[in-house]
Amino acid sequence: MDFTLPETALAVQRGIADVCSRYDMGYWERCEAEKRWPDEVWADLAKGGWLGLGVPEEYGGGGQGLLEMAVATETLAASGSAGGSAFTYVLTPGFGALTLSRHGTPEQKGTLLPRLATGELETCFALTEPDAGSNSLAISTFARQDGAEYVVNGQKIWITGVQRATWMMLVTRTIPAEEAKPRTNGMTVFLVNVPEAVEKGQLSYRPIPKMGANTTPSNMVFFDDLRVPAANVVGEVHGGAVVLWDILNPERILLGASALGGAEVALRVGVEYARQREVFGRPIGANQAIAFPLAQVQAKIELARLMLYKAAWLFDQGLPCGTESNIAKLTASQAAWEAADAAFQTHGGMAYSLEYPVARLLTDARIGKIAPVTEELLLNYVATQVLGLPRSF
Amino acid sequence: MNIVVCVKQVPDTATERKLRSDDKTLDRDAVDGVINELDEYAVEEALRLKEAHGGEVTVLTMGPAKAADTIRKALAMGADKAVHLVDDALAGSDALSTSYALAQALGRVGFDVVVLGSESTDARTGVLAAMLAERLGVPQLSQARKVEVNGSAVTIERVTDYGYDRVEASLPAVVSVVEKINEPRYPSFKGIMAAKKKPVETLGAADLEADAGQLGLAGAWSEVVDFAVAPPRAAGTVVKDEGDGGAKAAEFLASKKFI
After folding, report:
1. Three-class SS of residue B56?
2. Could you give the CA distance from residue A166 to residue A164 in angstroms, rounded to a whole number?
3. Tens digit of pLDDT for each residue in B61-84?
4. How many CB pairs under 8 A join A and B?
5. Chain B residue with minimal CA distance to A8?
6. What interface predicted TM-score (ipTM) does this complex get?
7. In A, which residues are within 8 Å of B192 by CB distance?
């Protein structure tokens, strides 16, 4: 068994760290406070070809897999962007580029992938609905065929990055959930041109005020007789579930990677403070009550990283990775939360001051336990799918 | 055009740097090495010269085995090949012996223009470019914030206290650059992967056809006799303004011979 990272992943680690070394913690704090996209980092990532890592070389990308993308996301988050801000790497390189690389038609790939690789075009992903959160198969946004077009009506919630996206990966029902047999049948994924649809009044959105991760707004989205050409179907009509799994598994892995990087930066901040802060004549890190929680977090980070890289590797090999993706996401998010909490506790009273970075790291880390899927649903997956326990629903 | 860019691996300025107690040289093993910041600008300028005039960029470095990381970074940015001067006999070189070793290597490699950062963040002598030019018998153009090559002539804008001088010389020449000159590029993914396959020639002291007595610690003209940790900063003097603040501040400055 060989645990060394491939040279490509090491190159990603080094290259992304190089880009991020010019952006300190204060930069990410300002982006969050000003609720703005990290334009400068985005431009630098684009220039170095880092956004197109997962795009095949023939379309101008780096031809790499999910492992390299996970390492990129982790490194970006660990540099200080933390969990929330690493979304910048998931929306377009993940949802858009990776999905189209696997499931796009030759035309979709030819027109979109080269421009997704350079960051010139951006994407977002619309699945969640107010009445169908984690129960993805129960969505009701419906696409009705009308000649060479589909007409979509419905609404989505928690759709992140609509403001910047030229293209939305929209998941719809083309057979209502109650009539579909099996239930996974009758889902269809569309590419929707967002600015065009907004212009025509067929798509509108409203940002949701959030407690963190404000570098990327999340929205309610409404579709009102939205017309989409049939050529914009990604994958097969009614066969969208296949595409969906190839979005959801990478999403778990990439957001797991961003949680992992968030854990790393929180631990670093906590350890640094424990080393420097002196009370009763010695650094507080000399007290085991402070040191052990930090050491415990280090152990959890190492474990989560192993699981995460394994899940990404399985995905890249084309092997089933559902269980591993879910466990990786679960453990990485828990590591992130525990790291941020330990760093917070280490800071004592100062933790509550916004002049220290821990408050943002804590807020950022909390999201991993509820998004893109709750911890409970991940545990439920393990309970029913791995342990074979009876379903509660 | 044959462009050579000299780079140096220096201790990361963010980490604590130490001198060795035995030979009082920098303890390079104890710290993370990074490319000297100004040399990144030199690499960028070398690449821009190549992009404008064609030719080849060769990276030249002298340093221990781990300086190979610094070479890889320059190659990842886009340089074509590298020469790594590595030998225990070169350890402990001062500016004079370093310039001797590099000049010998440059004689072997050949060059139209040598580009380097105007100083390193570790020793900060800032004299290497001048020494190198003298040893090579070519013009030195220092502190460049802009470089232009026109045929066999090179023109720079040399930063001064009051603005800049235009300085022109014929090629071959040595050019040292300051951080105002450009914005160094990041290595791209493809650049990092390609760098692994680029040729790096390793040279030892014996390859330099040099006078061994002028190399390394033995050949150094300067010697560190002793060193001590800088004392912590003493409390400052507070001048309270009671109508005579200006006079008091002036008196203080005069007593320290600042004015």
Report:
1. strand
2. 7
3. 999 999 999 999 999 999 999 999
4. 37
5. B193
6. 0.82
7. 11, 14-15
